[in-house]
Design a protein that fits this description.
Elements: E1 15-18, E2 22-23, H1 31-46, E3 52-53, H2 56-59, H3 69-76, E4 80-88, E5 92-101, E6 107-116, H4 120-147, H5 157-170, H6 174-190, H7 195-210, H8 217-221
Parallel strand pairs: 1-3, 1-4, 2-4
Antiparallel strand pairs: 4-5, 5-6
Helix pairs in contact: 1-4, 4-5, 5-6, 5-7, 6-7
C-alpha cells in the first residue's frame, strides 16, 4: 500500500510487520534458524486478537536491505515495525529485538535475550513466546497513547478494549481491575460481540475474586 507524504491514514490499529531477523554469526548455516524465528514470530503475533500482521512472504522482500522504518510503514501500510538480530556463539545465543513506530521512527521497546545454548527448538520456542508476549503488551500500550488525543465519544469498542487492557496491565491492583472493567463494560455497550472485550471482563472479575477482594464473590466466580 504505497502512499506519499507521511503515514498512510488507513493503516490499521495494531498493524505490524516482522522484518527478517539478521544473522550476525559468521556461520551462514544459522540462516535457517534465524529465518524460522521470523516466521514463527509472525505466526504467533498474528494469532493475537485484532492484530493485522504482514505476511512473511512480503516481509522477506526486505531481507538484507537497509530500509528506514518509516518508508516500510508507508509501503506496507503498517503502524509498527519489529526488527532484530541473532548472534550465535559456541556456548551462547544472543537475540536482540526492537519495536519501532513506523510513523515517527521512534524506538518504542527493545530487549536482549542472552541464553546458554541448548536444544535449538526449545530456545527458539522460548524466545518467540517472550517476544510475542512483549508485543501484546507494548503495542496495546502504544495504541492507547494514540487514543489520548481522541475525545471519548470518538472511541469505538476496539479503542476502549485497548484502553481497558492497558489499565489492567499497568495497574496490577483491585482498583486497576475495577477501572479496567468499567472501560470494558463501556465497550460492551458499543459491541457486545467483541471477544477481546469479553475476555477483559472475565479477567477483571477473576482477578478480583482471586485477590479475595470481591464484593459479590458468587456472581463473579461464575466467570471462571
Amino acid at each position: 500500500m504505497a502512499t506519499h507524504g507521511g503515514m498512510a491514514p488507513s493503516a490499521p490499529r495494531l498493524s505490524i510487520v516482522v522484518l527478517p531477523f539478521a544473522n550476525l554469526s559468521a556461520d551462514k548455516q544459522q540462516d535457517d534458524f534465524v529465518d524460522a524465528i521470523t516466521e514463527h514470530l509472525t505466526t504467533d503475533i498474528s494469532r493475537l486478537p485484532d492484530y493485522f500482521v504482514i505476511s512473511c512472504k512480503t516481509a522477506f522482500a526486505f531481507k538484507g536491505k537497509t530500509v528506514d522504518a518509516r518508508q516500510i510503514g508507508r509501503e506496507l501500510g503498517v503502524r509498527y515495525v519489529l526488527e532484530g538480530s541473532v548472534q550465535s556463539r559456541t556456548d551462547r545465543l544472543r537475540v536482540n529485538a526492537q519495536l519501532i513506530d513506523a510513523e515517527s521512527g521512534a524506538h518504542l521497546w527493545a530487549e536482549r535475550f542472552d541464553k546458554p545454548r541448548a536444544d535449538p527448538f526449545e530456545m527458539q520456542d522460548e524466545i518467540i513466546a517472550r517476544i510475542a508476549r512483549a508485543m501484546d503488551v507494548q503495542l496495546v500500550a502504544a495504541e492507547t497513547r494514540r487514543l489520548e488525543h481522541k475525545e471519548s465519544e470518538e472511541l469505538d469498542a476496539v479503542d476502549l478494549s485497548l484502553r481497558g487492557w492497558t489499565v489492567f496491565f499497568n495497574r496490577v491492583s483491585v482498583a486497576g481491575a475495577r477501572e479496567a472493567r468499567r472501560i470494558f463494560e463501556e465497550a460492551l455497550r458499543i459491541d457486545n460481540t467483541n471477544i477481546d472485550v469479553l475476555m477483559g471482563l472475565v479477567e477483571t472479575h477473576l482477578w478480583e475474586v482471586n485477590a479475595y477482594m470481591s464484593q459479590a464473590r458468587a456472581e463473579q466466580s461464575q466467570f471462571g
